[in-house]
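Run log // design_07
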């Protein structure tokens, strides 16, 4: 049995012979502090979602029963992280907490140059401003909302070069986050290597359903880019989960620790942006990490203007201490990420057994509902994923989020909607927060909503921001 498997083989004596006994697994922690939550009534939820303009982002958390909106900044920190916060050095310049963070990034990720930021999008902004010139083209394995925004804001254009299987929710390809080398080569041939400032390579691709890239693909992409002198920049926000899937699914890695695999992933890149509010188990923070001192120097110049001094970058000393501890903690054993992904798979398995269409294989940080199939009666322009997310909240108080046409936004040149092939509702699991019983409640609600999906009305915009509209847009049900 592979190292770190959630259902572990246990040697047991049986009639004089060794036998493998299958046993249940449990979370590798115990609960020390709890936060009360309450269930609202159906009438209350009907009122709250209407007040929020049918946008789950605009709900108040006090009106949410099980919050699966995001895994960003929502993890439960450990006792060691809380203890670390007490020794945070709040010096404006040269904080010792910064140097502890710098050491953690070097040891675990392997990058020499650290530029701290208040969260991941701060790192995306710095990287885009430093490397992208107007007219550049940035190939990547499926867009992410804030990443593409910062690339376009710097004058670049994102081009999707992910494999075709990533756009098929029913494909069981084990590494749907892979970059298609032929698509990448076509971008280089068409635009020239000098107009490709870097390849944006996301680990555990969010918009594809939390799908990993294989180590073989990561190496091949890096080798191809090195031939042309093009840097590979990772979005390593969920690289830990990607490393887990490599261990579980890719030949030659079953006996390697997740820490070793994570380091090898990063070794095949020139740098990374990280939102530390995910893998790193903290409520705030992020960083840009690179190998080139000149890129780091230019990024630090912008950091001082937009974020803070180079030794805090928008974070308090106590936050840097918690982050440094979280980076070490996430790779101390494989049990942490195994249990984290295992809970996601548990919810996914419940939904599959209930006949709910989801993106498969189940991803690393959440379960993604195939809203286009569930709400097949709704046209794409009637926003089926947004409507489904609102319907789930009305049913049970479970909050997910839309990942479809609303999130995709509009083409900045034509003003037309981007129309992604995937129209999804994301149910993202915070780390170390909910029990399996919460997953049971969630699955029962979604199964019920799916059974009555033909009653879900479509939605239309009543307010549409110009940028990143899914955060603040408001909607109303279609009349009739």
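design_07 sequence
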């Amino acid at each position: 049995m592979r190292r770190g498997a959630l259902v572990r083989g246990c040697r047991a004596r049986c009639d004089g012979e060794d036998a493998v006994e299958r046993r249940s697994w449990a979370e590798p922690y115990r609960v020390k502090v709890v936060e009360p939550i309450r269930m609202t009534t159906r009438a209350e939820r009907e009122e709250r979602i209407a007040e929020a303009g049918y946008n789950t982002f605009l709900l108040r958390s006090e009106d949410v029963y099980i919050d699966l909106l995001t895994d960003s900044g929502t993890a439960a920190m450990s006792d060691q992280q809380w203890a670390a916060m007490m020794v945070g050095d709040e010096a404006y310049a040269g904080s010792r907490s910064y140097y502890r963070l710098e050491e953690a990034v070097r040891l675990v990720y392997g990058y020499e140059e650290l530029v701290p930021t208040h969260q991941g999008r701060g790192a995306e902004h710095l990287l885009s401003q430093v490397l992208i010139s107007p007219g550049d083209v940035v190939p990547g394995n499926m867009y992410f909302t804030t990443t593409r925004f910062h690339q376009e804001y710097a004058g670049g254009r994102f081009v999707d070069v992910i494999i075709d299987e990533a756009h098929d929710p029913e494909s069981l390809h084990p590494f749907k986050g892979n970059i298609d080398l032929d698509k990448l080569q076509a971008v280089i041939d068409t635009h020239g290597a000098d107009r490709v400032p870097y390849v944006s390579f996301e680990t555990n691709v969010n918009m594809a359903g939390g799908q990993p890239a294989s180590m073989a693909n990561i190496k091949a992409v890096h080798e191809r880019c090195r031939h042309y002198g093009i840097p590979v920049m990772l979005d390593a926000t969920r690289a830990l989960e990607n490393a887990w899937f490599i261990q579980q699914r890719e030949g030659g890695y079953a006996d390697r620790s997740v820490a070793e695999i994570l380091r090898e992933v990063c070794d095949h890149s020139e740098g990374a942006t990280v939102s530390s509010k995910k893998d790193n188990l903290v409520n705030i923070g992020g960083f840009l990490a690179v190998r080139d001192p000149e890129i780091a120097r230019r990024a630090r110049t912008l950091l001082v203007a937009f974020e803070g001094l180079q030794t805090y970058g928008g974070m308090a000393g106590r936050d840097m201490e918690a982050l440094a501890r979280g980076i070490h903690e996430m790779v101390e054993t494989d049990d942490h990420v195994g249990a984290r992904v295992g809970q996601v798979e548990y919810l996914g398995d419940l939904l599959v057994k209930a006949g709910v269409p989801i993106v498969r294989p189940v991803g690393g940080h959440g379960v993604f509902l195939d809203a286009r199939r569930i709400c097949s009666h709704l046209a794409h322009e009637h926003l089926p994923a947004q409507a489904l997310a609102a319907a789930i909240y009305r049913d049970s108080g479970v909050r997910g989020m839309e990942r479809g046409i609303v999130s995709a936004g509009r083409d900045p040149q034509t003003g037309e909607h981007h129309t992604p092939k995937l129209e999804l509702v994301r149910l993202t699991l915070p780390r170390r927060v909910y029990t399996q019983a919460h997953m049971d409640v969630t699955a029962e609600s979604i199964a019920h909503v799916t059974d009555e999906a033909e009653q879900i009305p479509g939605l239309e915009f009543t307010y549409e921001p110009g940028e990143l509209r899914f955060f603040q847009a408001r909607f109303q049900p279609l009349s009739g």
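Residues 204 and 212 are 4 Å apart (CA to CA).
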